[in-house]
Amino acid sequence: GYYIDGGLEPHDPDAWFSTGDLVHVDDDGQLTIFDRKKEMILRGGYNVYPSEVEDVLSAHPAVSIAAVTAAPHAELGQEVAAFVLLKSDVEVTAQELIDWCRNRLSLYKYPRILKIVDELPLTPTGKVLKRALPVAELEREIS
Prior knowledge:
The chain is an alpha+beta fold. It has three helices and seven strands, in the order ββββαββαβα.
């Protein structure tokens, strides 16, 4: 999505390409992309960046891959939800992983909903295809 109508012209006349990437520039001018704006979760007015929660989940010794996304919530707007693929021959409960996150993240950031899955939808490059996550299944669990 960096090209407009197949050309190299940006949308903005000031030459900005609107990519939706969220970045941080450090004091040395090093640019780091840390998330995508459209993937940000707005939970009760607080911004939650899925990559931060995924990093905490992935640090757990039982977790192979973690994918964090928004699930609809009637009062908060969105709830933090996680899908986790475990390493083989490892056992851990969803509640144990939620507690792991709760001890390492701000209270508004840790996932209240966590589903351990047997597989995650992946792109050809191995990234989790978040738009294909079964969030509709989670909606029944939140109600």
